[in-house]
Inverse folding.
């Protein structure tokens, strides 16, 4: 496979102003007729040769300005169509045959169950018809869909519907027109026997928008939460960014077979049903939150992505990083801000920091790729969001809003770059962002080493900050980053000290945003009359690692007194991590009494945000702990974490039990922040108590399961029981299965639960479950919930010393790759971090990667990941 470089970007030689598509959807084949209005791009040097993308298309007819083209006038190959003698402008018509029923890659036009749907981002449109399938070619689309009236009563595409025609042959056809120019990756089509719920929204300028959510008939009563989320998102974007919706209709369609979460096609979002369907009986609190944030994310793309899109795919973070930042802030406003920030940091540290430290590390704006689908990563999305957040941190909210206003005004209707976005921030603030832009071009997680010096005689306190960024593939040395570094200083009573830097006229109280720009830099605060405890990186103001030698006592102090929720949580994590890692090496190393006391204090605190407490009381994950070790000790980490949990449960049994009982609520289910907080705290208490191997606790779980109040509580209880070697484990799993076997999303949970079970026979159970009638390798949700969950969520099982987990994954990758390369490539990524393990495990993982690479005909997707992992 060839590598594509950012430095090779050239503007398109031709533009396509209008596209007229006609689909005839059939049971054997689908015909696509396209009429393209093409002209030379005045801004490019034109060669006279037109090269259109197209894959897996069977040519039926091709004509230029009404004249059928002779076989000598064009060439077709595996990747496209070339026309040698292009006029300066013309109408190109084509007719192709495609086979959506055979499309298992779920890219282009395909069938999910009985419905037709599309996924075109990044380069799926070329599997529908010949086109300039690149985001800087924006066209006006008209789409006519013809299909059987009974099988496909609902026919949808982008924009507004024009007319419906019924024909005597049992068919009907509808034409949709999208007035906004868009790149082909935003094209969508849906056809099926669907039901919808409808609502409406009036924008500030008085436009009435019809909101519709389409689902399969049996799911019609599970759409209300998605609809409520959509309305909230629309109002939020109007209020916070001054953006309103621009078409008469906004549609969301839920499909069962989908490679990712959802897709922001103009006016016609297509969603993985996981991010639409919810009822208290079938969806957990996490699911409700996920729906709210993904519905919002796709809606926000209408401006950040669709109206203003990317010039090329290297700029992917222009839309994804910005849109993730927007959805994070939306969720923070809808629920608990502090908790949302902690969840986002947890995800970033667990996955993005890990990616940045792996052979797959790449900048937020990558400079090369083989397969663009491999670059929809936590770096482009989540680190990209942090990079936008840092700009907001540096500017403050008013200037940041001015910056986005300018961005929307200047670039509406265009395909632009991350530099264009930053330029707006620079202009409104009058600041120079050239150093800042290294965040887009340099990969790796910067590390800040901090030391402090208190000089009582001078009443000075100096923080020395040294930054360093480890080498990443192709980038051995890094230039210094500009890092917004939020700090506060606490006195011994836990009060904020006034902060006045040397040379400044006055002090401020609260958080100070320091700007770290050099490799080593000192910040001296004056008027400091006692040794403070520093609160560092408040709100996680930059995606960096901070190293500072806190004493255990200082960490406990921060856990109790620090006003910033993130820092309070982080202090608890740091202290727990210290204890856990020490006990990996020395299993009977002492657990400081102060730590247990700090836990007790938090457990009995009924004042604070319960959801935040649940975060504080959650120990760092096994995989995160592994990341902190030179060589991951899978078994040791697991043992250490379990034994600390048991110790806490033994010592704090009474507190945990009263926490459990005090947070019971007999009220109906509501997914609001307060109720979610109570449920998560309560279920967390149960997860500690289960460590006691106490029959009474097991009974609590069983009772909670049987009470069946909502899926959050049922699943929490079931997952604790399923881990145990007790007869009830099988009974409850079977009961759950019988109750939910017809609900695919609940079955996903059932698979995951068993894949994560901490039992010696988990792998063979997973292998058996693959033969279960409810499982299908063709459905990405099933693959992720069984195979993905086992390989990336069950460290002890997957990293079994005999290599059986690796062999299993290698087999699955090869099996999947023939059907769905995108899903296969996500799976093979799990092995990219082989260097982190001991020599034997390294050898065995490498052997699987090599075996995959040696296999004839593997996809570009899998090749890129496997080969880069071994470099
Ligand atoms: N833009 C899509 C992701 C497309 C992934 C293509 N492999 C969803 C989103 O980020 O909103
Ligand atoms: Zn997105």
């Amino acid at each position: 496979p060839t590598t594509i470089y950012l430095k090779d970007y050239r503007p398109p030689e031709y533009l396509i102003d209008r596209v007229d598509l006609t689909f005839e959807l059939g049971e054997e084949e689908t015909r696509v007729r396209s009429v393209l209005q093409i002209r030379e791009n005045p801004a490019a040097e034109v060669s006279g040769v037109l090269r259109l993308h197209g894959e897996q298309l069977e040519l039926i007819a091709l004509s230029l300005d009404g004249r059928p083209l002779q076989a000598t006038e064009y060439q077709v190959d595996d990747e496209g169509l070339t026309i040698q003698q292009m006029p300066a402008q013309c109408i190109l018509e084509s007719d192709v045959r495609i086979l959506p029923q055979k499309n298992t890659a779920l890219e282009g036009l395909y069938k999910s169950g009985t419905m037709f749907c599309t996924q075109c981002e990044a380069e799926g449109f070329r599997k529908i018809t010949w086109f300039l399938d690149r985001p800087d070619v924006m066209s006006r689309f008209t789409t006519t869909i013809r299909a059987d009236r009974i099988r496909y009563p609902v026919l949808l595409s982008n924009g507004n519907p024009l007319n419906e025609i019924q024909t005597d042959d049992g068919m009907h056809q509808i034409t949709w027109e999208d007035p906004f120019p868009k790149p082909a990756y935003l094209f969508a089509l849906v056809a099926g026997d669907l039901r919808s719920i409808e609502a409406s929204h009036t924008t500030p300028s008085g436009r009435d928008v019809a909101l519709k959510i389409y689902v399969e008939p049996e799911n019609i009563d599970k759409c209300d939460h998605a609809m409520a989320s959509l309305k909230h998102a629309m109002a939020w974007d109007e209020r916070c960014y001054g953006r309103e919706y621009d078409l008469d209709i906004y549609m969301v369609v839920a499909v069962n077979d989908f490679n990712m979460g959802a897709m922001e096609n103009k006016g016609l979002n297509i969603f993985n049903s996981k991010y639409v369907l919810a009822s208290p009986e079938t969806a957990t609190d996490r699911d409700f939150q996920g729906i709210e944030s993904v519905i919002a994310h796709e809606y926000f793309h209408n401006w950040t992505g669709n109206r203003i899109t990317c010039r090329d795919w290297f700029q992917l973070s222009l839309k994804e990083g910005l849109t993730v930042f927007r959805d994070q802030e939306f969720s923070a406003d809808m629920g608990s801000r502090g908790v949302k920030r902690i969840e986002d940091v947890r995800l970033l540290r667990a996955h993005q920091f890990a990616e940045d430290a792996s052979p797959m590390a790449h900048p937020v704006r990558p400079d090369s790729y083989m397969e663009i689908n491999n670059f929809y990563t936590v770096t482009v999305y989540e680190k990209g969001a942090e990079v936008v957040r840092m700009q907001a941190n540096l500017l403050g909210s008013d200037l940041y809003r001015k910056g986005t206003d300018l961005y929307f005004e200047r670039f509406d209707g265009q395909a632009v770059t991350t530099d264009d976005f930053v330029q707006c921030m620079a202009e409104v603030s009058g600041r120079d962002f050239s150093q800042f832009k290294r965040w887009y071009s340099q990969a790796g997680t910067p590390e800040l080493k901090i030391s402090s010096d208190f000089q009582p005689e001078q009443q000075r306190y100096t923080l020395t900050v040294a930054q360093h960024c480890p080498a990443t593939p192709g980038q051995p040395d890094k230039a210094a980053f500009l890092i917004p570094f939020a700090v506060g200083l606490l006195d011994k009573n836990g009060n904020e000290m006034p902060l006045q830097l040397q040379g400044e006229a006055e002090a401020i109280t609260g958080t100070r945003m320091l700007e770290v720009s050099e490799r080593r830099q000192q910040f001296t605060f004056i008027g400091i009359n006692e040794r403070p405890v520093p609160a560092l990186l408040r709100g996680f103001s930059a995606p960096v690692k901070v190293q500072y030698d806190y004493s255990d006592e200082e960490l406990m102090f921060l856990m109790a007194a620090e006003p910033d929720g993130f820092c309070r949580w982080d202090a608890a994590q740091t202290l727990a991590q210290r204890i856990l890692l020490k006990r990996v090496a020395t299993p009977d190393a002492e657990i400081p009494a102060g730590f247990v006391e700090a836990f007790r204090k938090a457990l009995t605190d009924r004042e604070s945000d319960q959801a935040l407490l649940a975060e504080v009381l959650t120990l760092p994950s096994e995989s995160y702990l592994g990341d902190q070790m030179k060589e991951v000790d899978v078994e040791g980490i697991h043992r250490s974490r379990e034994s600390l949990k048991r110790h806490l449960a033994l010592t704090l049994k009474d507190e945990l039990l009263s926490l459990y009982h005090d947070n019971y609520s007999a009220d109906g289910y509501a997914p609001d922040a307060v109720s979610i907080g109570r449920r998560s705290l309560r279920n967390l208490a149960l997860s500690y108590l289960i460590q006691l191997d106490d029959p009474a606790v097991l009974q609590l779980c069983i009772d909670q399961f049987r009470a069946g109040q909502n899926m959050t509580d049922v699943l929490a209880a079931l997952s604790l029981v399923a881990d145990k070697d007790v007869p009830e484990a099988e009974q409850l799993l079977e009961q759950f299965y019988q109750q939910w076997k017809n609900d695919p999303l609940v079955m996903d949970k059932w698979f995951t639960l068993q894949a994560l079970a901490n039992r010696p026979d988990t792998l063979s159970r997973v292998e058996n479950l693959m033969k279960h009638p409810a499982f299908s390798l063709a459905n990405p949700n099933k693959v992720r919930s069984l195979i993905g969950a086992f390989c990336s969520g069950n460290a002890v099982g997957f990293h079994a010393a005999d290599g059986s987990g690796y062999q299993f994954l290698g087999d699955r990758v090869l099996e999947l790759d023939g059907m769905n390369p995108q899903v296969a490539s996500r799976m093979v990524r799990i092995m990219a971090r082989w260097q982190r393990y001991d020599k034997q495990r390294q050898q065995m993982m490498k052997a699987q990667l090599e075996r995959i690479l040696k296999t004839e005909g593997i996809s570009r997707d899998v090749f890129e990941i496997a080969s880069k992992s071994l470099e």
